[in-house]
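Quick one:
INPUT:
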């Protein structure tokens, strides 16, 4: 059992330095050359860690008052970033020690440094050593805690790049038998050997192929059977993407950010796109100088191509940075995350690189955690591979075996969606899958190395999404096995095909410049399955159901969807375990519902995407309202939910005289009292999702009809004044009904002024006469108008007037007033002299 760190919403780790246990695994250490350049990043503590964690949780939780109330990086900085005076103090301290701090991140929580080893040693009062790890990995470590300046311990969170952590790396497996049997650790990627046919068992079932998405060319489809690999359309078919394609959703308008610590050859990507007939935009952001040039190991190629194959209209933004290049290890892996989050260009972030928690260390893990909370608050989804070492994630090839239970970072982070691995033997409909586990003993006859990562975190307590999950899923049932009396973060959250014997066909090394197979070939590993989930979230974000409100941190919505309709949204994996080394007694075995080998299972994409978008009721907040006493009010409350869900509406604080229909969401009535009222409305559905909104409703004095006068004779004229009450909306439209005995004959003879007692000004308006009703629409709203209707527009019907005179009944003028607040007031007044 390793040290447990509570997530920041439960406890804040005060120390900025803890040498990770992984440093003890170094084979040798030597002084760092003084001129060696390092990338180091100083991370800062949020101004209110508890508030930050609470907001990140609430903004992602359906039914919360803050659900999807996302912030921009600038808004995040103002609310949660370090205070400007704190940032200035850290920069002054660094400068005073001979360091040259770069620009603070957009979120206000990190400051990059690019310096020589000598400058770093002097600036932080440390000695640096270069550590060598198995597999030719290196890291730079400080021999003591960095000194950041007096009084700054409450501001600085950590110094990333000096913790002695070996950089993440790809360990791509080659066809040689012993290499196939070796443990694949970083990134979670396994190449399918060319000779795998003899070891793969029964041929793969390819009976059902999606027809709505990209289709492979003959070169790809012809290569797939010999590689025992699936083409993109077959993966799309297995995981239910066809329904999304059929609805016209291919991810247009959504940017997927791909995290890479190696280069790729753009020609490989172009060949893949040419084969599938796709035209996805692929561009690059180079962090800390980039990742160099070349073909890479194939990791970047599979990440990019799998995403394009499933979300062909999405924009692909590849973030490439250094990972143990000639410039030396450092903060490059963290800096890529920081750039992806602080640029806030990608709605979905796909990560196929990582390391076991113990090797990463707590300071770096805490720094990452803050970034991932920022991503959640900005509406970014982060998916990450859970590792290819099964439940023993720290067991590194070429070193002393470490078969203790462990999970992979960043998949184990509380604000990341971890993706586990399955073996996909038949496409379905509804695929046939087991837990991916090829076993790891040299004495065993192993077809392919690796197993899907999963288990329980040693760093993080179980987050709310898992704690609140439906008991029918069984998320909490085994959590005590590795955490004593505490509930720990369970990994993974979901899964996808990862077995290299049932792998993904991609195009890599077309130039032949790298060692290994060239062209179309099969790959596996949880890194290959992670883009499946990245593409699904991109399609969800682009769908009509999401209505331009991205899913963001997906776990709360995923676990809630599983609790509501598990069978519709997920494919349950119920056989196998991920005990790769055979030392844990098959502890994390698949079972119905959630398990620590495949999480909630694999996706049924079309129904799940709809559930992720619409399970949270979206309620439009009305603008501030203004009405008059005794006016007739009608305001429609607007809300959206999944098709077929029945919405119910609630309201409190309405002005007296108004009421809300709980079924239609329309507010109607006549206000009885002046004043300002704070109205709280809500919409909810039968699934328990709800959304609130608050607005102000001001009720002003009643609208008045006054100074009604009829002049008879050869040029009869009817005049009257309409005035809005104090605090009520201005006048917009008048509908005038002629009194009995009078008739509006035409629109001629009309005039209108502002009703002022002295020097009235002309008011511009338009007029329409229909069915005896004269409609006057003001070009500009006004508080008071005087209306004059003269000859030939007004006619007096002598016979009717005489009849009224005999009955001693004065005719009445009726004016319906439509104010600027869309309320109506029906006013009436006697017409003096009309019945003479």
């Amino acid at each position: 059992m390793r040290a447990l760190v509570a997530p920041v919403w439960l406890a804040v780790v005060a120390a900025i330095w803890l040498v990770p246990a992984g440093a003890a695994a170094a084979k040798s250490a030597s002084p760092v050359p003084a001129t060696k350049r390092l990338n180091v990043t100083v991370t800062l503590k949020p101004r209110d860690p508890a508030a930050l964690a609470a907001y990140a949780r609430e903004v992602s939780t359906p039914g919360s008052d803050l659900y999807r109330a996302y912030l921009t990086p600038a808004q995040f900085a103002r609310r949660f970033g370090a205070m400007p005076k704190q940032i200035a103090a850290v920069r002054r301290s660094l400068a005073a020690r001979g360091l040259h701090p770069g620009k603070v991140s957009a979120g206000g929580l990190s400051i990059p440094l690019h310096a020589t080893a000598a400058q770093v040693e002097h600036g932080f009062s440390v000695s640096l050593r270069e550590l060598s790890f198995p597999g030719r990995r290196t890291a730079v470590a400080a021999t003591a805690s960095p000194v950041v300046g007096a009084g700054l311990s409450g501001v600085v969170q950590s110094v990333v790049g000096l913790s002695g952590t070996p950089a993440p790396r790809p360990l791509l497996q080659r066809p040689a038998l012993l290499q196939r049997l070796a443990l694949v650790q970083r990134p979670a990627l396994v190449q399918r050997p060319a000779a795998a046919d003899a070891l793969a068992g029964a041929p793969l079932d390819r009976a059902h192929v999606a027809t709505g998405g990209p289709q492979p060319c003959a070169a790809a489809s012809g290569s797939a059977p010999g590689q025992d690999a699936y083409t993109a359309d077959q993966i799309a078919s297995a995981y239910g993407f066809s329904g999304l394609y059929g609805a016209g959703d291919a991810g247009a308008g959504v940017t997927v950010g791909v995290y890479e610590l190696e280069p790729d050859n753009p020609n490989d990507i172009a060949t893949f796109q040419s084969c599938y007939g796709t035209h996805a935009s692929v561009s690059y952001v180079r962090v800390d100088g980039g990742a160099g040039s070349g073909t890479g190991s194939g990791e970047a190629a599979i990440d990019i191509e799998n995403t394009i194959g499933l979300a062909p209209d999405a924009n692909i933004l590849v973030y490439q940075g250094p990972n143990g290049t000639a410039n030396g290890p450092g903060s490059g892996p963290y800096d890529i995350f920081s750039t992806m989050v602080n640029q806030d260009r990608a709605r979905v972030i796909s990560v196929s690189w990582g390391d076991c928690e113990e090797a990463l260390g707590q300071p770096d893990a805490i720094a990452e955690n803050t970034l991932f909370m920022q991503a959640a608050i900005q509406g970014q989804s982060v998916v990450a591979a859970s590792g290819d070492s099964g439940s023993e994630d720290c067991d590194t090839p070429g070193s002393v075996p470490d078969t203790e239970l462990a999970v992979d970072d960043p998949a184990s982070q509380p604000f990341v969606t971890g993706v586990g691995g399955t073996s996909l033997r038949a496409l379905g409909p509804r695929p046939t899958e087991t837990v991916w586990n090829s076993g790891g003993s040299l004495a065993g006859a192993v077809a392919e190395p690796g197993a899907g990562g999963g288990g329980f975190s040693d760093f993080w307590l179980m987050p709310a999404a898992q704690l609140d999950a439906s008991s029918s899923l069984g998320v909490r049932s085994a959590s005590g096995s590795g955490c004593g009396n505490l509930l720990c973060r369970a990994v993974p959250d979901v899964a996808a095909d990862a077995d290299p014997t049932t792998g993904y066909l991609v195009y890599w090394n077309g130039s032949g410049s790298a060692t290994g197979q060239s062209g179309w070939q099969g790959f596996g590993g949880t890194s290959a399955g992670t883009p499946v989930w990245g593409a699904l979230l991109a399609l969800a974000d682009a769908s009509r159901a999401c209505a331009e409100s991205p899913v963001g941190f997906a776990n709360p919505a995923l676990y809630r969807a599983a609790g509501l309709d598990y069978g519709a949204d997920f494919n349950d994996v119920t056989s196998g375990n991920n005990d790769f080394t055979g030392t844990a007694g098959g502890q994390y075995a698949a079972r119905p519902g959630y398990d620590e080998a495949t999480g909630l299972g694999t996706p049924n994409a079309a129904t799940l995407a709809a559930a992720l978008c619409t399970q949270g009721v979206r309620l439009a907040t009305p603008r501030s309202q203004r009405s008059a006493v005794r006016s007739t009010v009608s305001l429609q409350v607007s809300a959206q939910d999944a098709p077929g869900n029945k919405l119910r509406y609630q309201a409190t604080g309405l002005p007296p005289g108004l009421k809300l229909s709980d079924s239609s969401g329309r507010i109607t009535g006549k206000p009885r009292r002046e004043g300002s009222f704070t109205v709280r409305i809500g919409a909810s559905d039968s699934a328990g999702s709800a959304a609130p909104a608050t607005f102000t409703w001001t009720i002003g004095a009643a609208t008045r009809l006054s100074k009604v006068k009829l002049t008879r004779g050869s040029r009869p004229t009817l005049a009257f004044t309409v005035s809005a009450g104090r605090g009520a909306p201005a006048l917009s439209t008048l509908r005038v009904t002629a009194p009995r005995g009078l008739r509006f004959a035409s629109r001629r003879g009309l005039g209108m002024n502002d009703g002022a007692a002295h020097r009235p000004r002309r008011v511009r308006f338009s007029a329409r006469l229909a069915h005896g009703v004269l409609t006057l629409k003001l070009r500009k709203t006004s508080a008071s108008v005087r209306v004059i209707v003269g000859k030939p527009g007004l006619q007096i019907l002598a016979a009717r007037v005489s009849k009224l005179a005999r009955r001693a009944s004065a005719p009445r003028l009726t004016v319906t007033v439509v104010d600027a607040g869309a309320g109506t007031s029906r006013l009436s007044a006697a017409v003096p002299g009309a019945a003479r």
